[in-house]
Structure formats: C-alpha cells, structure tokens
Amino acid sequence: MPRSGGASQVRAWRPEVPGVTEVLHAHLVGHAYPAHTHDTWTLLLVDDGAVVYDLDRHRHDTSRARVTVLPPGVPHDGRPATGHGFRKRVVYLDAAVLGEGRTGRAVDHPGWADPVLHSGLDHLHRVLTRPEEAFEAEGRLALVVERLRGHLPGSGDERVPAPGAPTRRLARELRELLDASVVPGITLARAGHLLDAPESTLVRAFSAEYGIPPHRYLTGRRLDRARRLLLAGERAAEVAVAVGFHDQAHLSRHFRRLMGVPPGQFARVARTAQPAA
C-alpha cells in the first residue's frame, strides 16, 4: 500500500452481522483523537503508518504487524506516530460478544503480533464490505472471536456443546439446518442457539467433517438450484432471488467462480448443446 498522504477520508457502516455494531475504514492525516471511550470492543488494524495511543493512561503503539483490541468503557486517545498519517480498519463489537471479565487483560495487553488473528481479521473486513456475504462474515467473525478469547481468557462464560454431542453430530445437525434453509438462509447465531454450541465450534466441526465451511456449502446448494432453473429457461435475475442470492451480481460472482462462466453464458451454451430431437 502506498505511503499515507493527502486529505483524510472516512467510510463507516453498520453491517447486518450479529455482534458487529460498526465498521470503519479511515485514512487520517494530521488528526489526533482526544481521550474518549466506546461502549463496544474495538478491533483495530493499521494498514499504513503507525499509531501512538494512551489506554487507561498507559502509552502504547501499534503498526501494520499488530492487532489492537481496546475494551469498552476504558478511556483512550490516538494520534499518528509520524507526519504521514495512517490508514486503519476497525470493527466495533457489541460488548457481549467477548463476554465479561476480559477488560483488565485487554488494558494490560491491548495488542499482539499474531499472524493468524491478523489474517482472520483482514479477511473479515474484506467480507464485511459485501453485504450479501453476511453468513460468511458470521463464520469468520466467530473464528476471530475464538482467537481473541485465547488472548483474553475470561471467567468461563462461553457456552459449550451440550454433553454427549460430539462435533461430528454437530456438523450433521448444522448441515440439516442449512439444507432446510437454502433460500431464506439462517444466521450462525441462530444455528448456535438451536444446536446449543458456540458459533466457532460449529464452523470448525462442519469444516472438519465436510471439508468446506458452512457458508461455502450453502452457496453450493444455491448454485445447484440456480443451474437447474437456468437450464429450464429462467432469467438470471429471477433465478438469483429464487434461490437465495442477494441479486444477479451476487449470483454471477459465485457462479463464475464455480463454473468459469457467468450464468447467462452457461444457459445459452447449454441450450445450444442440447441434442436434436
């Protein structure tokens, strides 16, 4: 990424992903945050430049290799470490997502050079820019939260799978839920509630059992239905909505990724390839 420069820019939105209250992407030049608090957990990536901040009156810094986590209710400020400014991406999580009893640990150790966590949060940001991929974002968020809990162990507040429910059974039960919800979809939070298991456990169990994460399985089921409707002569725009995609562009992106051609071309070629009567 090029060196920061130019005017400050900010983009913020609230995705339809349970637990995420806001996403912020910013390029800030010559700006310093005064001391303030949030009622959310703040997950920060710095993509260019570096940031110096005080958290609970203790000095810290962060740069591209680190993930910074600021707890709710604790005063902090922020300012660029150089005159070039910085670029950052932030996910704000509802305070309940990480549970209680982690604030003190986060104040003492608010950042880590953890490549797995950094990569997971980076992928989460990429998916959060696409509203139609909310189910995938849920799964990626679950794994990020699981990793964070490893850095910030709490007081045993996480739910665990019901006694006697092995991960293979959880995977099969989640698959049944997905099969029953191909068109309307289902949130991972709802599935976790129905199966009495943490979202991260569901993602890991399903991926281990079937070799793909839940969001990719659901997309595959929708694409199967889309192919049948396209071969029956239905228009791509109508097919997209009928099988559970957000719109035609959403269908086209996944269809091309799987089949190598857009749905319209697939349908035309399939029709011309039919054997003569």
From TrEMBL:
Residues 172-269 form the HTH araC/xylS-type domain. SUPFAM superfamilies: Homeodomain-like (SSF46689), Regulatory protein AraC (SSF51215). This is AraC-type DNA-binding protein. It comes from the Bacteria. One of its GO terms (molecular function) is DNA-binding transcription factor activity. Keywords: DNA-binding, Transcription, Transcription regulation. The lineage of its organism: Bacteria, Bacillati, Actinomycetota, Actinomycetes, Propionibacteriales. It comes from Auraticoccus monumenti.
